[in-house]
Amino acid sequence: MTDTSTTLGWMSVPLAIVAGTLRGSAPFLFVSLGECLTEKAGKINLGLEGTLLTGAMTAYAVSFLTKSPWLGVLAAGLAGAGLGLIHAWLSQRPKVSDVAVGIAMIIFGSGIAFFFGKAFIQPKAIPLPLFEWGNWSSLPQVQAALKVSPLLLIGIAIAPLMQWFFSSTRWGLYVRAVGDSPSAARAMGISVVGVRTCAIVVGSFLAGIGGASLSLYFPGLWAENISSGQGLMAVALVIFARWQPIHCLWAALLFGGAQAIGPALQAVGFDSYYYLFNATPYIMTLIITIATCSPRRTLTGSPGALGTNE
User: Fold this and answer.
1) Does residue 309 sit within a domain?
2) Is 211 contained in some domain?
3) pLDDT tens digit sequence for 23-51
4) Please, are residues 47 and 105 in contact by the beta-carbon 8 Å criterion?
């Protein structure tokens, strides 16, 4: 980072933010897409923070043991789907609160990750291969900044596919019907429990892959504090995106870039208010939460039965 500031001066700040956006957006993107799918079906999964940690640990462990990062990604998704299945079963019991189940799943998923992950804190797993889009430049800083994870590109491709799924497919109609009016969906012969279970499991699968992008790309290690609350931030991100997958993509890029502001300013010697700039994603989450407290705004685009026990 010091070499970057010496060569480019203050021009290194936007470069670092671009690099941070490319590196840090993937977890936000996968978790928010997973939560968007879950909430479209009328359920809230606050447990994705635990799913993100479990996915990160699983991906790192499997990559280290098998020497294949892509097997690690698959294992992370399957681990997330397993937690999603538990969440789907618990959250659809009579008179059970989504919030209570979500908190329990955060504790459970984090506990699993911390317990099984202790043996993998020191070893070095094989990271994901990267697309090196900066080779056109002679500056090593540009080359380093434009190394892109294939998971980010996969997430970018999933966003419009999920948008099309909701708007143009029968299964997408089922998900929206269940999320808007479970009683009407039952009258149409749609299995509310089945659709919601599928939505939660697939959403958790995506969140698990988001965890893999943390441990196998950026920061590219396994540590117990690796997620930094990104799973919980994704809930606010989905509200900010108005439950639209394409908007989740732009919101994820925004949050990913916000994470890079503090390190980018520190690289050019701007150390004042460093911790405040590092807290930018959390401040944005708080602002979004406050801004959507109005019932009128919250309901804009929100599934009609979101969070209910219908």
Assistant:
1) no
2) yes
3) 999 999 999 999 999 999 999 999 999 99
4) yes
Residue 179 lies in a domain: yes
What are the start-end ranges of the H helices in 126-216? 140-145, 150-168, 170-180, 182-187, 192-216
Residue 306 inside a domain? The answer is: no
Distance, in Å, from the CA atom of 160 to the CA atom of 245, rounded to the nearest integer, reads 7
Q: Dihedral sign, CA of 127, 129, 130, 136?
A: positive
Taking the CB of residue 157, how many other CB atoms lie within 10 A of it? Answer: 10
Whole-model pTM: value is 0.92
Question: How many CB atoms neighbour CB 230 within 10 A?
Answer: 29
What tokens does 193 get? 């429990």
CATH code at position 265: 1.10.3470
- The number of folded domains in the chain is 1
Instruction: Compute CA distances 89 → 43, 83, 193, 197, whole Å.
Output: 12, 10, 9, 7
